[in-house]
Amino acid sequence: MREKDTLSRFGGDEFIILLTDIHDFDSASKVANKIMDILKEPIDIGEHSLYVSVSIGISFYPFDADNKNDLIKHADAAMFRAKDEGRNRYKFYSSDMTAVTLEKVSTEYSIRKAIKNGEFTVFYHPKVDGKTDKIVGLEALARWKHPELGIVEPDKFISDAKELGLIIELDRIIMREAINSFAHWCDMGSDPGKLALNVTLSQLKMDDFTNFLKNTAKECNFDIEKLELEITEGQAMQYSEEIIKKLEELSHIGITITIDRFGIGYSSLAYLSRLPVDTIKIDRSFINGLPSDKEDLIIIKALISVAKSL
Length: 310
Hints:
By secondary structure, the chain is an alpha/beta fold.
C-alpha cells in the first residue's frame, strides 16, 4: 500500500482498504494481486507454518456508488461472490450480482447494527418438573427485537451470525444479560432453579470462555453452580479431546453440562461415556409421537436407561 491509502478492520476477519487516485481496473487488480501474493507466504509461529487465504471484493467511486455505505456494500457483495466461486481470488462489483449475495450483505449490516443498538434480548422458557408442576429452571434463548419486523426467532439469524464470525460476540451478549437478570431475581427472593444457556462449539473453543463465565458471574453476584450449559449432540462429537478437556474444566467449577438434541444419530456411546455430562435432552423427534407411538416409546425408555447408567 501507498502512504495515502487507508487500511481498517471492519469486523471479524473483514478489512477495508481505501485506495485513492485509482482510475482503472488494472491498477486495482495490481493491488489485489499484490495482497494475495503476500498472503500466500507462510506465517511462521514457533514450529508451525500457518497459511491464510483471502477473498477480495472491489467497488469504484463514483461508478458503482456515490456514497460510502453503498460503496462498501457493493465491495462486500463482490467479496461474497469471490467466496462463492472458490475463495482466494478477487472480484469486481457488477450490477448483475445476485439478489442472494446482496441479501447476505444486507443481513450482515443488519446484525452488526442490531448488536451495536442493543436489539438482541433474552426470552426464557421454563423447565417444569412433570411430577410436581414446579419450575426447576429457565432456558435462556436469544431473540432479536427488530425495529421493523418485530420479534425475530433465532433460526432466522443464528446461522448468519456464525457465518459472519459474529456468533461469539452475540452469544456473550445473551449470556451476560441472562446471568445478570437471573442473579437479580435470586436477590429478590425468587428461586427459579438453574439457568440453562446454549453454547456453540465456537464459544467452547475460545481459550477465555471459562474465565468469561467466572468473571461475569462474579460481576453479577451470580452463583455459578446454578448455571447449566447445553451443547448439541452433533457439536459434542466434534474436536473430541479438545471438547472433553473444556467440558471437564467447566464441570470442575460446578457448572452442569447437558447434551441437547440427544439421540439423533451422531453419538458414539463410548465417547459419550467419557464426557462429564449431567443431563441429556432427548430430541423432540422422539417425543412428538408419545404416548401413542410404540416404537418411540421403546426408544425413549432405552435412552432413559442409558442416561441413568451413565
